[in-house]
Design a protein that fits this description.
OB fold (Dihydrolipoamide Acetyltransferase, E2P), four-stranded antiparallel beta sheet, mainly beta, 3 helices, elongated, 2 domains, 44% strand
C-alpha cells in the first residue's frame, strides 16, 4: 500500500527512518551500491522527499504500529443500533487505525481499495483497518461488537 512520507527520525543505530502517513516507520538508508538514496543524507534532501509515497508492506499485512495509543472506544453495537455509516461505508481518518472487536457472533468487513477483500470478525479474530481506507460492515446476528481507534500519542 502506498503511503506518504510525513516526517523522519533516527533509530537507535543512527539510521534514518521515514514516518509514513499510516504511522509505520520505514528505513530510508543510503548504502551504495545496494540502496541509492543520497537525498537522505541532508535535511534539505529529506525535506524535498516529504509527501513522496513509499510502499508500506506492514499496512499490506494489516499490522497496527507499536507506538500508537488507544484514543477512543465506542459503545457496544448490536444489529439494531449499528451506525448507518458503518453499514454504508466509512473511511478511516489520516493517521488513525480502527480496530473492530467482536464479542459475540460474526461480521464481515468489506475493505475497499487497495485491499478489496472481506475481513471476517469473530470473538477470536479482530479486524484492523489502516488509515484512509474505505470500509463497511455486514452484520451476522446475533452480534455484539465495538470499535477502538488508535493514533499517535499527543503531547
Amino acid at each position: 500500500m502506498q503511503r506518504e512520507i510525513i516526517d523522519y527520525y533516527l533509530d537507535e543505530e543512527g539510521d534514518w527512518v521515514a514516518l509514513l502517513s499510516c504511522q509505520h516507520g520505514q528505513h530510508v538508508r543510503h548504502q551504495p551500491p545496494f540502496v541509492n538514496r543520497p537525498w537522505v543524507i541532508t535535511q534539505a534532501g529529506r525535506d524535498a522527499m516529504l509527501g513522496t509515497k513509499l510502499n508500506c508492506v506492514r499496512c499490506d499485512r494489516l499490522e497496527l504500529p507499536d507506538h500508537l495509543v488507544l484514543l477512543q472506544r465506542t459503545a457496544e453495537c448490536r444489529p439494531g443500533d449499528i451506525p448507518e455509516e458503518l453499514l454504508g461505508g466509512l473511511a478511516t481518518k489520516p493517521g488513525i487505525w480502527t480496530r473492530i472487536l467482536v464479542q459475540e457472533g460474526c461480521l464481515v468487513c468489506r475493505v475497499r481499495e487497495p485491499f478489496a477483500r472481506p475481513l471476517i470478525g469473530t470473538p477470536l479474530e479482530e479486524v484492523l483497518i489502516p488509515p484512509e481506507v474505505l470500509y463497511s460492515i455486514e452484520p451476522h446476528p446475533p452480534l455484539c461488537f465495538y470499535l477502538e481507534y488508535y493514533g499517535p500519542p499527543h503531547g
